[in-house]
Amino acid sequence: MQSLNLRSRANTPLRRTQEDKLARESDVTVSSTNVTPYREYRGFFTYILSWLVLTLVMIWALVPNSVLEYCGVYYYPSKYWAQAIPAYLLLAMLYAYIFIACWNTEVKTLALDDLRVITDEHAVIPENPEEYVWKAPSGVWDLPLGLVNEVLYDD
After folding, report:
1. Cystine design at 114: which of 26, 67, 89, 110 (Cβ 3.0–4.6 Å)?
2. How far apart are CA 10 and CA 56, in angstroms?
3. Is 111 helix (H, G, I), strand (E, B) or coil?
4. Which of 27, 56, 76 is the last residue of a domain?
5. Would residue 30 count as lying in a domain?
6. Domain presence at residue 9
7. Which alpha helices (H) appear in the chain, and where do they start and end?
8. What string of pLDDT tens digits covers the 155 residues of the chain?
9. What is the model's pTM?
10. How far apart are CA 103 and CA 114, in angstroms?
11. ∠ at Cα 29 (24, 35), nearest 5°?
């Protein structure tokens, strides 16, 4: 039985394949060249700060006023805001969701008689579309709608 030596395996360079090279050169791959050296510190600080703020808000919202005054905390907002702010934020999110759905449906959707519903300037139409109608295409092509309707619905 062969034993695994993880220390020596971790130090060996990875083999570069053609797929790895293409993946690294792709514009879809997220590049790590923009990472600043202080990004980790900012992330950790943001994490700690958000937990601190959450803890303080929970203490302010859940601890009775008499305990806060006993600890010397007299200047704080009304506890009404501990419930009102999250409720207002949730309603604002709901209204924004409904507004965006209505905007996309009523304003951004094209009319059915508009030619841009069928095709646009980015369409890739083959030179001879008839050869792609009766067999599976080797790539992604946009077939003209009239030709597709003729094949599907013509008797």
Report:
1. 110
2. 44
3. coil
4. 76
5. yes
6. no
7. 6-10, 18-25, 39-62, 65-70, 80-103, 130-133, 145-153
8. 455 544 444 444 555 566 667 666 665 655 566 667 788 899 999 999 999 999 999 999 999 999 999 999 888 899 999 999 999 999 999 999 999 999 999 999 988 888 888 877 887 777 777 766 666 656 556 777 777 788 888 86
9. 0.49
10. 18
11. 95
Tokens found for residue 142: 């946009």
Indicate if 68 and 23 belong to the same structural domain.
yes
| Domain span at 41 | 15-76
The separation between the first and the last C-alpha atoms of the chain, rounded to the nearest angstrom, is 69
Q: How far apart are CA 106 and CA 100, in angstroms?
A: 10
pLDDT number for residue 9: 46
Task: Tell me, yes or no, whether 70 and 81 share the same domain.
Answer: no
Q: How many domains does the chain have?
A: 3
Q: 144 with 124: CB under 8 angstroms?
A: no
* Helices 39-62 & 80-103 angle (0-180, nearest 10): 120
8 lies in some domain: no
Distance CA 8, CA 4 (A): 9
